[in-house]
Q: What sequence folds into this?
């Protein structure tokens, strides 16, 4: 059940890469138990905003709060212990390590005991049965879809309250996406809060209920995803526009 209180709350966030400012006073809230799709034009700053939420970048102005706590200056590894997890875009695995090693790395920050590690491995295998026979295989030899499953599985090993995923469906075959989407749906049904950067409207409509639309480093819309779908001007910007990577 979704709570009215935000689990993640970003307020008035500015950020620049050197002299290039890419975020301008961005505010974004994800309710506890909610499912929010972060949509927008290419180069809008969506991925940067996720990195700020996860602690991989620090804003030049503004604040990040998680579960009521100001975490703006809290290191990324401590945010994992608090229950925040980010799956970055691309094939976010350690290619020379086995699938099992990739997954177990996800428990490092939370210092889980061996029994907990094995229990969580079983949970990940239940979500992604395609990986069960691949545990001893080097992650770099997996298909793109299997690498995405391993990357998601790794962050799930930390048992997060908030799961952030950058470009869930990018470059993946539809049959692979069906398995991944089904896994994400199970997670949100179990109460995991989801913040998703996504270019596929079909995927966003399947797994999220709320949306924020970004353009040129600013949020232009925030509310129910169904209301955003009715905004033809914004939808054309997302799915017909062109530009630099997010």
A:
């Amino acid at each position: 059940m979704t709570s009215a209180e935000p689990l993640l709350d970003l307020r008035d966030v500015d950020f620049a890469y050197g002299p290039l400012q890419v975020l301008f006073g961005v505010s974004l809230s994800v309710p506890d138990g909610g499912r929010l799709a972060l949509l927008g034009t290419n180069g809008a700053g969506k991925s940067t905003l996720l990195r700020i939420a996860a602690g991989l970048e620090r804003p030049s102005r503004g604040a990040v709060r998680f579960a009521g706590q100001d975490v703006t200056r809290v290191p990324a590894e401590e945010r994992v212990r608090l229950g925040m997890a980010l799956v970055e875009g691309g094939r976010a695995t350690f290619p020379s390590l086995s699938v099992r090693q990739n997954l177990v790395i996800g428990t490092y920050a939370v210092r889980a005991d061996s029994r907990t590690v094995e229990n969580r491995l079983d949970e990940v295998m239940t979500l992604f049965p395609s990986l069960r026979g691949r545990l001893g295989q080097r992650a770099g030899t997996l298909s793109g879809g299997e690498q995405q499953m391993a990357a998601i599985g790794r962050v799930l090993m930390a048992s997060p309250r908030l799961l952030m995923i950058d470009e869930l469906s990018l470059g993946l075959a539809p049959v692979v996406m069906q398995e991944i989407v089904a896994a994400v749906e199970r997670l949100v049904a179990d109460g995991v809060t989801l913040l998703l950067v996504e270019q596929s409207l079909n995927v966003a409509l399947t797994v999220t209920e709320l949306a924020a639309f970004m353009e040129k480093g600013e949020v232009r819309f925030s509310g129910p995803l169904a209301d955003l779908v009715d905004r033809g001007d914004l939808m054309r910007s997302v799915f017909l526009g062109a530009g630099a990577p997010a």
The CA atoms of residues 212 and 222 lie 4 Å apart. The chain has a mean pLDDT of 90. DSSP finds nine helices and ten strands in the chain. The first helix runs from residue 46 to 54.
